[in-house]
Design brief:
Layout: H1 3-16, E1 43-49, H2 53-56, H3 60-70, E2 75-81, H4 85-94, E3 112-116, H5 123-133, E4 148-152, E5 168-170, H6 174-191, H7 195-203, E6 208-209, E7 214-218, E8 224-229, E9 238-239, E10 265-268, E11 270-271, H8 281-285, E12 290-291, H9 294-308, E13 312-316, H10 326-340, E14 343-345, H11 356-365, E15 370-376, H12 380-385, H13 392-404, E16 409-416, H14 423-444, E17 449-456, H15 473-487, E18 493-496, H16 499-509, H17 515-524, H18 539-548, E19 571-572, H19 577-589, H20 605-608
Parallel strand pairs: 1-2, 1-3, 3-4, 4-5, 9-19, 10-13, 13-14, 15-16, 16-17, 17-18
Antiparallel strand pairs: 5-6, 7-8, 11-12
């Protein structure tokens, strides 16, 4: 693009911004933004989050990659987000290609687009971004001089549904992998070889999956016969990328110009989980546990506050109360927060790891507000089945302690649709909520509040429940109706997920490579912002299945055989399939597998990643 063309483009962007809601989403210029002269670097990377700025700018993974890449003198990393519907219409009407925030360059001018896919309902937004950028949607339609489309995130542990659109996936943790991709891309640029040569080079990087170098063969019944490689550079299986130690935490956060969903300094205190909840995708794929030292956490929070002026900090992990140094950490936070007068946000805490000592220090840290717990199921029997063993008595002891220590509200997370769930199990959810509210009123009267958040179980890849079926949507509606009736008049607030949206997530998370055609057709049918309740429609997806000739129930309402080749079997998340199978069978017997802090079950994570044995301990427990 010439200087005159760039100037014209910027004038056009300035012209349309006053016509859209929140033009601040599209202008950049935030505190701590990094802008490098375009010609001063060899590689330009657009980090793309396929949702609006208000959500994507809060994503810690995106912020970490932005910081890591911009520390390199030979790389410029810029950002781009999905335009809201009004901005999309304005871009299309004016013929303006989607652009980055830092330089307002069209995305098509970048060498690499790094797309974050943390959840499946971003897929149509992802296609929309490519289309708005003028980049061919399908990977086999791209020429040598078009950007490399690289995708990563939690959703791509099953990359197959979007395999037709992505050139290469980062499977697992991206902090080191993205650097390897840049190095290989720069060497390829110097070589002057074809795009196919780049893909072959990328396939040799540990943790990189290049779908065009793999072939999938199907049985007549639609199940997968086998997955084979079409080039010797392609790995089979593709082992996830993992870091032996957590990298230094981010401290230089961008401070947005408009209000976003989370405006805080966030530090990941621990990665991984040992609990083994059978429904939990994150708990399985993020093994093993790696902890950050208390001193490093506190220093990072202090520096982050200095760099941003934020008034809130957040400790991130799958289970903060399982962090082995949680008491010293919170005691350190008390000094920091007293000095800086900021608030602290903790994620949902595990009832199993509560203690009076923890409650005492938390009371001093954030008195009076709300608390979040996740029993997940209403009955003891079902909690054993999902490997979240917790007695009703233990639950009530925790509720009692929370209200005794001065908190006024508790949010309880439950799932419905678990394997082996009965209507009695669902009714038990309402009974627990009523009992919790009654306990709160014993201590603080009418100020006690209980909020029940109800989601729908989705059998996720790489979990023991990956063979399970998704509950019938009609049955889910009946269970929700039961809960609404049982809680009516109880003064328990109840919120729930749309069962149709959960059904879509089940299709996408459990799909094979043929789902790419459905996603493409649904996008053509108008599907956008499928994660947004006011934008989501199931009809474009139902019509898309019909148009491409696939049965949606094949992906959702079908229990899979234990010997079936699953669409994601060639992706190794670290936990052996044999252990997942055994856990699935145990779930049907109501058999509990204790926390692997108590006993190692040889899940496979350290057999595959033997170098982790040599890593220096970073504080707390680590695998034997």
């Amino acid at each position: 693009m010439t200087v005159n063309q760039r100037n014209t483009l910027q004038r056009e962007i300035e012209r349309i911004l006053p016509t859209v809601v929140k033009p601040g989403r599209y202008v950049g210029g935030e505190l701590n933004q990094v802008v490098k002269p375009w010609d001063s670097v060899k590689t330009h990377i657009a980090l793309v989050f396929p949702d609006i700025y208000d959500l994507g700018q809060s994503n810690l993974g995106l912020a970490i990659l932005y910081d890591i890449l911009n520390q390199r003198s030979d790389v410029a990393a810029e950002r781009s987000f999905a335009p809201w519907v009004d901005m999309e219409a304005a871009l299309r009407e004016a013929g303006i290609p989607l652009f980055s925030l830092e330089s307002q360059r069209p995305l098509s001018e970048f060498e690499i687009l790094g797309v974050s896919l943390p959840y499946e309902t971003l897929y149509t937004n992802f296609l929309n971004i490519l289309d708005l950028a003028g980049i061919p949607l399908f990977n086999d339609d791209r020429s040598d001089n078009q950007p490399l489309i690289l995708a990563g995130g939690q959703a791509v542990y099953n990359p197959e549904p979007v395999a037709s659109f992505v050139d290469a996936f980062v499977i697992g943790e991206g902090e080191e992998a993205i650097q390897d991709v840049v190095d290989v891309h720069q060497a390829w640029q110097t070589s002057g070889r074809s795009r196919q040569d780049l893909l072959i080079r990328l396939a040799r990087i540990p943790g990189i999956y290049v779908p065009s170098l793999y072939a999938v063969d199907y049985h007549p019944d639609g199940t997968i016969n086998n997955v084979t490689t079409t080039h010797p550079a392609a790995q089979l299986p593709v082992d996830k990328r993992i870091m032996a130690e957590l990298p230094p935490p981010l401290t230089r956060f961008l401070v947005p110009n408009i209000e976003i969903v989370q405006e805080r300094v966030s530090v990941e205190i621990m990665r991984g989980c040992t609990r083994g909840c059978r429904f939990c995708h994150a708990g399985m794929v993020n093994r093993p546990i790696r902890e950050r030292p208390v001193k490093q956490v506190l220093e990072a929070l202090q520096e982050g506050l200095n760099q941003t002026g934020y008034e809130e900090v957040s400790l991130l992990s799958l289970s903060s109360s399982d962090y082995s140094h949680i008491i010293p950490l919170i005691e350190g936070l008390q000094c920091l927060l007293t000095e800086r007068q900021v608030n602290i946000t903790l994620p949902s805490l595990r009832i199993e790891s509560f203690s009076e000592e923890l409650m005492d220090v938390l009371q001093d840290l954030s008195p009076g507000g709300g608390f979040t717990l996740a029993p997940e199921a209403g009955s003891e029997r079902l909690r054993d089945s999902i490997n979240k063993p917790l007695s009703d008595a233990e639950f009530m002891d925790t509720v009692r302690s929370i209200f005794e220590h001065g908190w006024k509200s508790i949010k309880l997370y439950f799932m419905i649709g678990h394997p082996q769930e009965t209507f009695e199990d669902v009714r038990a959810i309402a009974e627990l909520c009523r009992a919790a509210l009654q306990e709160g009123r014993r201590f603080i009267g009418g100020r006690a509040k209980i909020h029940a958040g109800i989601s729908t179980f989705i059998p996720k890849p790489h979990t023991p429940f990956q063979w399970s079926t998704f509950d019938e949507t009609q049955v889910i509606e009946e269970k929700l109706s039961l809960l609404r009736d049982a809680l009516r008049g109880a003064k328990v607030k109840m919120t729930w997920n749309d069962p149709q949206a959960s059904l879509l997530e089940a299709w996408l998370s459990r799909g094979d490579r043929r789902m790419s055609a459905v996603i493409h057709q649904a996008w053509k049918n108008g599907a956008r912002f499928d994660a947004w309740g006011d934008q989501f429609q199931i009809e474009p997806w139902q019509r898309a299945f019909q148009q491409v000739g696939l049965d949606p129930e094949f992906y959702s309402h079908r229990e899979r055989d234990l010997n079936e080749t699953l669409p994601w079997d060639h992706i190794n998340a670290g936990v052996k399939k044999a252990l997942l199978q055994r856990d699935y069978q145990w779930s049907q017997m109501g058999k509990v597998r204790p926390d692997c802090r108590q006993q190692c079950y040889s899940c496979g994570i350290l057999n595959t990643f033997s170098e982790l044995r040599l890593a220096k301990p970073t504080g707390g427990w680590k695998c034997p």
